[in-house]
Queue: 2 jobs
Job 1
Amino acid sequence: MVGRHAERAAVDRLLDAVRDGFSGTLVLTGEPGIGKTRLLEYAAARAHELRVVRLTAVEPETGLGYGALHRLLRPFLSRADRLTGPQRAALDAALGLLPGPPADRYLVGLATLTLLSDAAADQPLLFLVDDAHWLDRESAEALAFTARRLYADSLGMVFAVRDGHGEDGLFDALEVQVVTGLPEPEADALLSTVPRRVDADVAARIVVGTGGNPLALLELADALTAEQLSGVAPLPDPLPVGRLLESHFQRLISALPPATGTLVLLLAAAPSDDTALMWRAAGRLGLAARAARPAVAAGILCRDTPTAFRHRLIRSAVYAGAAPAERRRTHAALAAACDAVRDADRRAWHRAEAAEGADDGVADDLAAASERARSRGGYSQQALFLARAAELTAAPGTRAERLLDAAQAHLMSGDASAARTALDLAGGDLRGPVMRTRELRMRATAQMFQIAVADVPAMLMHAVAGLGPEDPRLTWELLCEALHAALVAHDRTRGVSPAEVAAAAVAARPDPDLVPHGRDLLMEGLARRAAEGFERGAPLLRTALDALRGGAGTGGASSPFAVMVSMACDDLWDVRAERDITERLAAADRDAGALYALSMTLLVAARCDLWDGRFEEAEVRYAEFDDIAADTGFPGGGDINRLHLFALTGREAELRAAARRIAELHDIGHGLLQLLARHALTVFELGRGRYRQAAGHARAVFEADPPACGNLVLPLLIEAGVRTGDRAGVGRAVARLEERAPLAGTPWALGTLALGRALTADGDDAEKFYRESAELLEQAPLALELARSRILFGEWLRRRRRRSDARRQLRAAYESFDAFGALPYAERARTELLATGETARRRTPETRSDLTPRERQVASMAAAGLTNGEIATRLFVTASTVEFHLNKVFRKLDITSRRQIPYAIGEPGAGPGAGRGRG
């Protein structure tokens, strides 16, 4: 190999890591002919003691869902019985090994990860995937999912990707090595290997004109005349590298005998790993094996493998340069050679490529193939088959229906842009209210995928109006989706208000005797809350939450129902219900591999952690959310979800930056997120003692009164209003609290009510209410709220000159805030303590603070008694990675057994004798 020192060093580092028991991933990216394949060959040659598995993706099979993954996993499928039940079922369904429900693509990814890491435990593995841009989407997702989760698995993966073909972002999180043209000295050295003499000045021009692309260098040296190479005849100016290479390949192909030309076209159209199929088709075309010889002699096919092209660019040139009639004839032969049962999908596709004009029989075959793809969870393949079937369908209505089905499949695969294209193609051929309703619902879903919610409620309300009384259950589902979007958009909806959506949902509620699901009850409660007020919605929300805690249905795992649960629980100050329901939703999401739903559930769980002062646990959940957002392509990740964590920990710059980013989402309708930012800023300003600024933010939330934080802001507004002398504002906030807290009836609600009364009471009544607040808040996992109550009580006692009593409350508040990491509030408590005459020293940070979010997560699960395998399944990683993280936890915490973990990381209920280290 000439040059490539940096690229070879990157490959060598990966191989060394795999040999040392770790993992490595590398994406080689560059233009065609730049040398990516040669680097894969270098990796294979250097992979001593590793088992090397190679896969070359091919363009004709881009649409065959899970086809590449099946080829890659074929040597390891004998190990599939070691997978957990859900993983095994998902993989069986994806690869068509056994019938079953459609496979969730993330469970397939986890099964791939588990299967390959299990094999790597016996012998380190290296996977080399060439032309990864031609992988079918499902296979690419599974491999990217696996690559992102490798850590300590003795497994390496190298992907070669052509420039401009990685726009889906699947491999963005992996290490990338850009392969560029050879520098001039190395390009000259390569040119010196060609049989004909190349003049030095000509060589310099060729190097500049090709950018040092190795393939272009060699092919140009072959394509130019001897006179041009020697400098006697002028070179084209500028050098038409791309066109010259293409025309060079085309000249080679056109010079072949007719039978050989037909054979190379057949090779270009056939699957590269099924030579038997290719030769059966060759037989139908009257071609013999000897027809390959001229192509081998011309350098089109490889000498050692006469059914393989010398370079994949030649394959593309062969197929692109063929006449349409020749391509159709070739696909017809391939279709006839396919087994009608075993290769039904491939046969249907080749029949479609052989068709000229509409052909309902072929379209029906494609539609049947799309159903088989759906049953495997191959939604992008399903969409491809349906879109092609639509092209070949004569009846406009049937064509439109197939395009709708294709759009739905695109949405299931996460491709909202392709879904909108299919819907646009369906256009005016949509007939009847059901088809138009489906179209609007899918357009709304595509908007939600892009976190653009402003227009979604109106779109869905229009769908409801078009549907009429035809399907009450579908009407209710559409209204629930519209209500969800309207509550998220809040005052940013366009074309319809949240109150109008809520009123329609109340009027259309399903018969509770027929649909007693907790989910429906909760959505009706939120609708009544928005349309008729808190006093009408609260009783139904309480019934719904009790039903959900008792095991009533929560809906499909793919739906982010936790967001609605969070709104209801925060509105009723019910943190216990929020934790219980969230834990069950998270478990169901993990079992189903429903990563999008799980990500939303994690955000809700993080809020519960914050209210209980468990900031490190919250950060763990935020970090996992960010991992999942990267996996699913969800654009709503990042710091905008950490608003309250930033506020409580005093990270002002990050808080304000996140709030600015949220303000930029104004036009796409995230009104609720902006109110949550206001709530977080209120929390922050109160911690700093900046009461006027806090009051401004809190009043905005109070006036909007969203379920998510409209009630939670009340004690904050009362505190800020009392400190700034806003008697009217305080009166309104207290009146609302007096009205709502008894209806909620939870310890948090009643403790907050007592705190509000304490802040506005005089004399002994205030002390009574402060003590009542603390007693109530102690009954729920609300350590942060309890500490806030204590600091306010302590401040009140100090102002009453009861320094000894004040110290007890302020010291308890300070120690809590300090332990949580709530720096603004800890400093506020410390300042108050100093005013009582007591000095407060900041404690030395505990060792557990050194744990990374992932280590903390693994440690918490181990403390709860989960095995390494169970932890791996829940976190979508491998057991060896879990073991690696646990070893680091043991070293950092200076412990020797899992029994010591709970005390070492401060888990509730851990005994003080559990944490003895090695000493």
Job 2
Amino acid sequence: MITLPKIYNVQFVALIATLGGMLFGFDISSMSAIVVTDQYINYFNNPSGVIQGAIGAALAAGSVLGSAIAGPLSDRFGRRDSIMFACLFWLIGTVVQVTTTSVGQLIAGRVLNGFTVGITSSQVPVYLAEIAHKDKRGSLVIIQQLAIEFGILIMYFIGYGCSYIDGSASFRTAWGIQFIPCFFLIIGLPFLPRSPRWLAKVGRDKEAIKTLADIQAHGNTEDTLVLAEWNEIVGAMRAEREAGKGWRKFFRNGMWKRTMAGISVQAWQQLAGANVIVYYLAYIAQMAGLRGDVAMVTSGIQYAVFIVFTGIMWLFIDKVGRRPLLVCGALGMGFCHFVVGGVMATHYVSVPGGVGGNANIVFAVRSGAPANTVIVFSYLLIVVYSLTLAPGCWIYAAEIWSLGTRATGMSMAALSNWVFNFALGMFTPPAFVNIQWRIFIIFGVLCVAAAVWFWVFYPETCGKTLEEIEIMFGSDGPRPWNTRRGESRLDAGIETARYGQRKAATEGDHSENLRAGAAKV
């Protein structure tokens, strides 16, 4: 059997692995730029309300299914190979979308693509968290979020460019381009190493140590960092074996706290309402009086803003901690929702026939300062989200699980994300029609509730090993609001290992001197 060479530079590994995130981004904006085009509206008979909600939510529906099987699949075949398996469904789903002749076929294609996204969105963060050093884990996992955002931006402007193509070839061309990132992901995956923690979990200890050394210490299996981290992994596995098997392990002792945190942090990311802006800023732009190319470009700029500010956070994610990002981010987003909803409430006019004939947009905001305020605070909400909850929720969910529960636990977390994503996808288009500006007030209240939840229930995980995070959630763990970034016991373990090496070397030198003295006698 041919063994391909492996890449052990973690940043390069992350770039390849997070092409799975780019698939997610491509499928999101494959609709964002297209739903307002005449070609789409005419071909699918101006879908609105529940029908448009079903088209938009089909991705999330498929992702729910993918997330549900991702954990067992990843535990059985490994993180890397489960991502490869998911790619097959992306290829099939893209074919179904490109050849679509009806709303039903379009929904089916998006469900298949969503199945892929459900697996990759849950297992890519697991894979990255398991190969990363504790002090670099956040900046590595955040690459997944950046890949999603680059996918959204690239696909949005591809869709915008394709809007100048006549007829159904417009959206078929845009959807066909989704093959490209999947192709590169399939080519690159065989060159990635398996997760050392997964190898340890399935009993391949020698391979696990070698992979850990290749990733962390250029292949030196005697490196103090490698020795200390391996001891952490072994200790965690021993504790998990004592905890038993089955679903009970997700709720026994302090594990229920991690299960609650992992599931709820992903739910709150959706309930914070950022995806209303991400998916439907084109609608909001038209409500604010923007038309044609101006509305499309204005909507597209938000994705560039997304990338810029997530890129800024990439530099600081492991220096500011998780709790401040989550709490402050939720409050900041809530403020933006209240401003947008308040301005719309006091400066809107009904348009029963739909703005520009679009049946999903039945009210407009008066031009001038009110319309400008809505656009500015929609952008500001994206800025706050890209700095805080967008990367923070995925990182937190990937960090908190134990070795034996990580794949399935992250699968459960992603499942929570996609269930609420689906619900909101179905809710948002009808909500724009029926409750209009009140949708933003609802999301504002939910953001405040999220901030309180984060403060009360989530301990700080930044700068700690995956194994010692278990202590944070244990029955004897500290109160969440008393936890701080860093303070890792791995550093002490490294010093112990170094001391042991120095002592062994000193004793070895002493023994050599004794032998030399005996030889002279």
